[in-house]
Amino acid sequence: MTGEEKINIDEFDGKKFKNRFVEEDDNRKAVVTHYLHNYHNGVKDHFEEEAAQYIKQIVEYKNEEEKLNIVSDSALQQLLFEVEDVPFPTPENYTFKFIDLFAGIGGFRIALQNLGGKCVFTSEWDENAKKTYKANFGETPFGDITKERTKNYIPKGFDILCAGFPCQAFSIAGKRGGFEDTRGTLFFDVAKIIRDKQPKAIFLENVKGLKSHDKGKTLETILNVLRNDLGYYVPDPEIMNAKEFGVPQNRERIYIVGFRGDLGINSFEYPETLDEKVTFKDVKEKDVVPTKYYLSSQYLQTLKNHKERHANKGNGFGYQIIKDDEISNSILVGGMGRERNLVLDYRITDYTPSTHIKGEVNREGIRKMTPREWARLQGFPDHFVIPVADASAYKQFGNSVAIPAIQATAEKIINLIKDKL
User: Could you tell me if 340 and 206 lie in one domain?
Assistant: First the structure.
């Protein structure tokens, strides 16, 4: 392989290799990046046999004439640099290992890496979220975790399982609901991984509504499975609000933590809230934002009419403007997620529309928050890379976890298991 030729993991996809392989495998990039990320520790052995084949194929594809039979040191070093020279690298002297399920764009990962953790497996099905994850961590998540082939990539010996799984109802046959009653849901796959891999601790996050979902039966079943079927000590779940951990967003989520029964842990205290009060001005863009974020006068009038109609019916629905000294509503995907978090920004100087809008740009200074402001509302640092279009970015940050609240809780978990690592 000549010094001028460059290889890149992102070139390794089904389109380029469709004539080379009989069976397509969406996890190829994940195998390679997970292998490289664990190249300096024993976890690499779990991925090595398959990853070595894929890396060889990358190099062969880039150099058809030489037909290399081995991966040269220069090629390997180049690939290692690609996964290690990233905005959020693994801590050099990590003290524990974790896996990141339903990873989204890595909110859990940032929080646990900040505490000295090493991520040894991650999965996420959304392709745009995978792009963002790869751009920031140098690692492509595995895909559908419901598939046994994907589960088989999870190594043994990690300490903490993290998962922000969706809320789904169970078909409960028994009075309380058990492991088999959750079959067909994503929680079943999480529970199966816990049963098979036996991590020391688990940390699950879900929407606040899980507490009352299906008249409380859903949460009751989850706790019954974790406590009785899997043998974990699980204290009563707590609803945590992001606004109490240093970000100006009213975002309530339920946290479920658990500890393997043989560890002898029988008490847990969730973190105390911070006295620090922050408002939207703390995350507001410092510079004038592009015109595209300002509402058109016609759309703004539509929102006003919609709110007035509901107000006449005694409802509180409709758009909302967040002042600089206030905190935002929970940022959500779809519906009125963005419209309930409009802001005032009079710094606009160019009212020329930059997109195909109906009407003209409003003169009241009303705009949407930017994706970067949404990122800050979730506690993402400003060097977090946003490589996708705005529509995808809003979706990704709206679906993410609030990093400061996750980190404060994870620190409590780690303090309890640190002498057992």
Answer: no
Query: Parallel, antiparallel, or unpaired: how do β-strands 321-322 and 342-344 relate?
Result: parallel
Whether residues 347 and 304 fall in one domain: yes
Predicted pLDDT of residue 357: 74
DSSP structure string for 205-222: EEEGGGGTGGGGHHHHHH
Residue 279 lies in a domain: no
CA distance 84 to 80: 6
**Ramachandran sector of residue 163 (left: φ over 0; alpha: ψ -120 to 50; beta: rest):** beta
Residues in the chain: 421
Distance CA 72, CA 78 (A): 10
> Could you confirm whether 119 is annotated as catalytic?
no
Phi, psi of 201 (to 5 degrees): -140, 155
Q: What is the mean pLDDT of residues 320-345?
A: 91
Residue 191 has pLDDT above 90, yes or no: yes
* 241 and 193 part of one domain: yes
Distance (Å, rounded) from C-alpha 419 to C-alpha 414? 9
- Residue 52 domain boundaries: 9-83
Q: Is this model's pTM higher than 0.70 or not? A: yes
With pLDDT > 90 as the criterion, what percentage of the chain qualifies? 67
Among 167, 193, 247, 406, the one annotated catalytic: 167
Residue with tokens 């997109």: 355
Amino acid at 355: T
User: Sign of the CA dihedral 247, 141, 182, 194?
Assistant: negative
Instruction: Note whether 42 and 189 are same-domain residues.
Output: no
Long-range contacts, 109-113 (Cβ 8 Å, 24+): 109/137, 110/380, 110/381, 110/384, 110/403, 110/407, 111/401, 111/403, 111/404, 111/406, 111/407, 111/410, 112/160, 112/162, 112/407, 112/410, 113/88
Residue keyed to tokens 């802001």 = 343
Amino acid (1-letter code) at residue 334: G
Chain mean position to CA 318: 28
CA 82 to CA 395: how far, in whole Å? 27
The answer to whether residues 179 and 256 belong to one domain is: yes
How far are the Cα atoms of 103, 197, 335, 374 from residue 126, in angstroms, in the given order? 10, 25, 20, 19
Domain boundary among 20, 50, 83: 83
Residues 318, 305: Cα–Cα separation, whole Å: 9
Structure tokens at 58: 């990358």
Burial class (CB in 10 A: 0-12, 13-18, 19+), 102: buried
